[in-house]
Amino acid sequence: MRRLLAGLLALTALLAVLCWPEDASAHALLARADPPINASLRESPTRITLFMTEQLQRSHSSVQVLNSAGQRLDIGETEFSDAVPTQMSVRVLKLEPGVYTVAWETLSEVDGHTWTGSYVFSVLNPDGSAPAGGAFEIDLDRPGLPVAADAVVKAIGLAALVLFVGAVLVSWLLRPSPIAVLTPLLAATVIVGIVTTGYESVAGALRLGDIGLLGDVLFDSRNGLWLQQRWYALIIAAALVSARLLRPAIVADRLALSVLGLLAVAWLASASAISHGAAIGSGWIWGTLFDALHLSAAAVWIGGLVSVIIAIRGHPDTRIDAVRRFSIVAALSVPVLAAAGLLSALVQIPNVNGIVETDWGLAFIVKIAILVALFAAAAANAFFLRPRDAAAEGS
What we know:
- The protein is an alpha+beta fold and 395 residues long.
- 57% of the residues lie in helices and 13% in strands.
């Protein structure tokens, strides 16, 4: 039994690496610009246009054009395009020969992340020679909490989601239902979900420079609207789980699981709706769908596995039936996990070179390698560990 549990725990750790979504690093970054990066122009442009990788929240996205002395030469407000939601531009004065810095700040409409960046271009002398002087050095440090902290908190929140979904699934699947045993796990995941969602909301406001902008984050952006939806779902879940902890009979198991199932779907939807897959231009519907399927399959496999381990601990009489029931569901989730991950890669990686030239592509390669190892571990468990464990039970 101990050897089986150790194997399941090791498998859980590997699966956590395999199934982790790559949405923590999504931002509205510069894709291309007109004039291009490091361009040398014969004459002054009249407008600077930037094309970003994600849809922009207009209230907190902007472009500035600075000369070598740091003086702004852009005219008026930053302009946006209804036809191209990733585009922003600004008009400029007539630029004399020199080196100019384009500084930009973005707030992603999809994931609520802010980012800053800059690039330079030159206007050549009348004879075509390079102008004197250099680019103005701009401070790109952003206010708010460290980006690494954001990534860690988001990862913790996703882990809580995976465990919550798994606990609800296993409570439905096993007979008798282990919901009483798994209620503390449900409570812990809901608490973590509330804390991490609160952190994401506050961090979004601090990245904009002031906690007073929390209202802008929650009510004026797509990301904020989904965070609100998650808040509502988690508050309802907290109330229900608290009631079950205090008086287990106050809400019938079937009713409690029905409500928790709906709340799990709502939590999953809020995670996928602000994922990296939701930022893929015209393909955002497919990107969001594949991300949701991938995350759901991961939650079934990882979260379900953890919950099964908790449910059968101390109940050896139900172990074999529990493992048999869960194995069927886990086996069905594997092709969904693999297919959704592959289709998500096809949508998000623009070409074959992107597999080795982008962080997302490299992560995809690592996941494929781990998936092969997991299939080998699963085969060993199915053909060697489970039969031996069953024989030991029989003796």
